[in-house]
Fold each of these.
Amino acid sequence: MGSLTALGALLLILMIIVGGKQGISSFLSMVINFGILFFSIVLIAFHLPPIVVTIVASVILLSITIFWSSASDNASTTAFQASVMILIILIVIIIPIEYWARVGGFGLEDSEELEGLSMYVGISFTKLAISTAILSSLGAIAEASIAIASGLDEITIQHPKISSSQLFLDGIVIGKQIIGTAVNTLFFGFFGSSMGLFIWFYGLNYSFGDIINDKVFAAELIAIIISLIGVVLTIPGTTLMMSHRLKKIQDKEKSESGK
Amino acid sequence: MWTMAFKLKSRMTWIQVLIVVIFCLVAVFLTAHDDSLYTEPIFQVTKVTNGKVTKMSDEFHNVDYYHQQLLSGHITNGKYAGKHLKIQNAYSNSGAMDHQYRTNQKLFIVLHTSPKLHATVKDLKRDTPIIFLLALAVSLLFIILKFRGVTVISSIVINTILFWLAVKIDHHNNGAAVIPIFSILAVIFCIITLFLVMGWNRKMLVTLSAVISATAITILLTLLVFGVTHEKGMYYESMQYVTQLPKPLFLAEVLIGVLGAVMDEATDIVASLATLKQERPELSKLQVFNSGRQIGKSIMGPLINVLFFIFMAETLPMTLLYLKNGNTWKYSFSMNMSLGMTSSLISGIGIVLTVILSSLFAGLLIKGDER
């Protein structure tokens, strides 16, 4: 048995112990997410437009991550709508930034690994950088929107008569609590995944100017800041969706009782 | 009165938007005029002349186009400031290692003085877009989080400085003690971050002990699995940017990578359980533990996915390049994605263990009168 399989089995067992059925579905959601991610790469390799493939894949990935979590129907629907909205906003920010900063492709630091590989494959690496940045933000957006939507759903269950503007204010309060720690998840993930690069920079005496203009570093930093912006926007985004939904339900009830 | 408050609020929003725009523009302006801070010569492109285009294909039937371009412009800093130059550049449509340059871009160049002054392009100057994006993120944090934004940003800044220090110490030890160094760093990270989020109290200490023990057990379990499976299928040679022994570096990367998620989760669980115990002091230790498990099982899935996407998305370009170079799916996966997948799985184990340990510690240690 390979290490990967063994670790996977261990994770599955632990997840079943903690979550039972929910544990199995959380594990499956990761496996299926991987399948979709890999399939998207294969589709791009067959020259389908990278950004379109990424957007379609992202919506599917978000729906799997959100609807397979244990959030209530109301919370997960709201979280899904909000995260798709955030996804669109992020795409609008990412595309010009990537064309401006041109971080697609590989840097000098990658030279050794690229030895013997043909680099002229006819697929735009700038577009791939856009795909990478979008994909790496998905988990963070999904997690933040589920957390906020679940919190707000709890409030609407306990106070069904709450006004939508009051719910909006509550959402911002809940959001603030969640975001403080969600930002840490992102940044430590970033520190961990680029530790080798940081050690490389230090070892080769890169100056601050060298680092901030370095293609590989810039690509990683852009991806993480885009995720950060996504998470921050999730607060007003999810809250807006939830209070809008509540207003619709309350209006409907009002008109029904008026009849 | 309500409409007045509303008007005031909406005016505030407009002022905020204006401040953000000005802040971002200032950031852009400053970095667009910081050429004199660099020792490397910078070249401003003022005119681009397109040259000939060649179609090329490789042994794997990949078709690409190779373009020649002549860049005219002047040097903006250093000894040769103001000097006009023409530089040859070539780029492909895919642009994996090369770039098409446009007018108004600034480039770092390498100057050659013999036989006469000429230059080659090194790379694009990227500080302006990077700082712009940073400015945008910081201002959004402040607008939405208000004063809490200060805590969030200071925690990021302090942690970045500490991380850089650890990298420095690691380098001076030639990477011999990477795991001890980053384990100590991990403990310091936890203390500072949790202090900033929760303050110094019993709840924070409970969270801290849950985080540290969950992470430590995760690393031990990973080492155990590696021992049992003889690290079969671990392609350390595929690790990127490795300047020291890869295996300990990999473990240190995972250790730091999972820490944020584990803290996030433990904070959530311990805080909710403390509130629960306060509202219903009659709950037994086992009941508290079970409530913790209930909370944990709903957050663990999304949280594992956060790290999964961070670890996996960045492998996309290299995997694609492998696929386009005629490698099989299995080989492309093994050489590029398997380490990311391993990191995700180890992180997952850490996240699940955190559910158990933070519920356990909260059940045992938190009393009803705790706030």
Amino acid sequence: MMQPVFNRKHLLGIRELEVGEINHLLDTAETFRDVSRREIKKVPALRGRTVINLFFEPSTRTRTSFEIAAKRLSADAVNISVANSSVSKGETLLDTARNLEAMAPDCIVIRHSMAGAPQHLAKICSAPIVNAGDGAHEHPTQALLDALTIREHKKHIKGLNVAIIGDILHSRVARSNIYLLTKLGAKVRIAGPGTLVPAEFAELVEQGVRLEQRIEDAVTGVDVIMILRLQRERQDTAFFPSMREYAVHYGLHPEHLALAHPEAIVMHPGPINRGIEISSEIADGSRSLILDQVSNGVAVRMAVLYLLAGGGRSEVEEVIGPKSNGKRKHRETRG
Amino acid sequence: MEFVEKARIMDGPRINRALARLASEIVEENHGADDLYLVGIRRRGVPLAERMADKIADLEGDRPPVGVLDITLYRDDLSTVGAKPIVNRTELPGDIDNRSIILIDDVLYTGRTIRAALDQLIDFGRPRRVQLAVLIDRGKEHRELPIQADYIGKLVPTKKSEIIKVLLREFDEDEGVLIVERPATEVV
């Protein structure tokens, strides 16, 4: 029998994960997708457990998704939204974390505008930490739900051509997706305005990631097009002349879709800026999987919470008598 | 892990005959196969349910539907097991409301698996009746919950230190039921 292959305490990023761990997360998520399709959308797996959603950045979709995921596993979900204050962020985070720890949560889901905040929390908290997006660093559950969506429609990921278009610089979604897709054997191309494709991505070229200047070159023949949200709130410096110019050069339009594989799918992590990075015609069209991504998000987060907050909390396996040991090793003997 | 094989209590043909008898008992008790719905508990309850459905089809003409339960998310020991068990699919095609459900598993021991299966079943609907069929009943003295089987392939009184291994060709190279014991020297 296959052994569980995800034994990490935290989910901080995709970069450090092994292929087997990613596949195990996706396989587990697939079974959890069924739960959301039942009449009673709830299983008792995390009964009595507490999940804290600690959001230092505004988020509706991700926070709600984690909350629903926790509730469908019978865990109690508590949402804490902390507006960014001028207080030194390291200090605030540390204090908040200590206070939360005192309430004995079984898992803390954190979103923070500073890269590395979840890693910091993981060092000082005993509860498992899930990174729900940290600065421009990583957003692992988004990459996992994207992979689950691709797998659902294309049956596999290896060998697929995937174009990631847009504001790569500010995008944790792009980073996590590039790590995940290349690990699973997809061929990734990225394109965006030169000012929004950071120099550090040049090193990815060695790993087989293709950098393209023009959206037309990026999407030609691809199986999957991932459009990134133009993060208007982060455009405090002039990265490009105007929204209109961005929409003209890097917005996805029907003529671009015609260049892609005839069965190409279009994805977007949301929320979409209609008419800027994606035309409404495509966003609402038959090739768009934007709402499938949202459904799969709940399944992926259920899998993550189950794997991190479910099961024993002790590092050493408890010995609870010969019968239970037998049960654990051999399903044949279970009651 | 190595085991010491103590006895081989059933071979392939005996398993087959036991299933045939169980199938006819089920049909007799339920006055036919009209409302029957078989549900196998993963893992080895599933091939047993499939085989039972074939035998009921031989007797009655119609093959009852077969569903699959994975009870992992309903286990009462999730908080104490070390590694998180793999979650497999639960598939109950169609509607279980007002059906006569036959839950099928290979071994009945503490009764905790059946408790989990019942809880899960009830989350899917309201069957008219739920009955339990097992290939091996390890005896009432091991029961930790008030759960008994309605149909029993073979009653095998065992000690706690013993393990019943059911081998089925769908999963194993061999077919049979063994009583094995962990070597006394091994520390688990």
